[in-house]
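S2.1 Query sequence (Large ribosomal subunit protein uL10)
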Amino acid sequence: MDDQKKRQLVEELAGKLRTAKAAYLADYRGLTVEQVNDLRGKLRATGAEYRVVKNTLLRIAAKDTGFECLDAQLAGPTAITIVQDDPVAPAKVLSDYAKGSKVFELRSGALDGKLLSTDDIQALSELPSREVLLARVLGSINAPVSNFVGVLAAIPRSFVQVLAAIQDKKAA
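Output structure tokens follow.
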């Protein structure tokens, strides 16, 4: 790769890292092209980008971003997953893939400028998705209103039941 292409790659990576919310590093040695493409497709579906990058280029691109903390983790063949949106969904995909593969290994990650260990990534992957959390919040907000409507509906229902009981008593 000539210097011009390296500069372009570093600028592109730096731009993506400046706007990224999270990044995960993995050791991909031993994966076949088909497996890498499968993983890429799964990550692309979550809005993340999976790339194999030289450590020196990634180190230069990560300068002055929230991902400088990954510098010490850049050793050996490195694949980086850059996450622009929800960091939970790609963490789930990577964790599941690492569990199912003997050769793919999550190394570390960064979220909002903080270094994540593999245990942290695993814990992050066990969180519910953003949509589920939003649904839970909306359910919690909606619960008092629903309960109040139920209480208001119970008053006429009770009154009708009392009238029905009186009617049954008079009929008997």
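Strands lie at 22-27, 48-52, 79-83, 105-111, 114-116. The longest strand covers residues 105-111.
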